[in-house]
Design goal:
The protein is an alpha/beta fold. It has one domain: 3-Layer(aba) Sandwich (Dihydrofolate Reductase, subunit A), CATH 3.40.430. The protein is built from three helices and nine strands, in the order ββαβββαβαβββ. It has a nine-stranded mixed β-sheet. Helix 1 links the parallel strand 2 and strand 3. The longest helix is centred in the middle third of the chain and has 12 residues.
């Protein structure tokens, strides 16, 4: 199982993210693209990027290495667990990756950050997943964002 959260705590040993969370577009990789975050991404741990297109691992400053996984979500989770050891594995997003892991029953906790902004477009996070039982564990509210932690059962 994995936890969905980019703020799951200091004991995160590896992350998994979807292709568009790492970079724009679909199709073959632009080999010059190294992510949205500059030379020192905020992860400081191994990150496994789900993709249909192979790419060599990309090592960045601060301990982040992006490994591109082309053989499915289960393989990415297995690799992330191995890399994390006794630490947590976090699904960092995007929506399609989250839906795949939720649909497969591979997430223990879901941390949603709710911001009162109308974006106008985007992907529905829980669309097509169905049958989820979300038990609220923690709610932290502020004027700009509400964080809700759910346990999936």
């Amino acid at each position: 199982m994995a936890i969905l959260s980019r703020q799951a705590g200091e004991d995160v040993g590896a992350y998994i993210m979807g292709r568009r969370m790492f970079g724009p577009g679909t199709g073959e990789w632009d080999q010059e693209w190294t992510g949205w975050w500059g030379p020192n991404p905020p992860y400081h741990a191994p990150v496994f990027v789900l993709s249909h297109h192979p790419r060599e691992p990309l090592t960045m400053e601060g301990g982040t290495t992006f490994t591109f996984v082309t053989d499915g979500i289960e393989s990415a989770l297995e690799q992330a667990r191995k890399a994390a050891g006794n630490q947590k594995v976090v699904i960092a997003g995007g929506a399609n990756a989250v839906r795949q892991y939720l649909g497969a029953g591979l997430i223990d906790e879901l941390l949603l950050h709710i911001v009162p902004v109308t974006l106008g477009a985007g992907e529905r996070l829980l669309e097509g997943v169905g049958g989820l039982k979300l038990d609220p564990v923690e709610v932290i509210a502020s004027p700009t964002v509400t964080h809700v932690r759910y346990r999936l059962s």
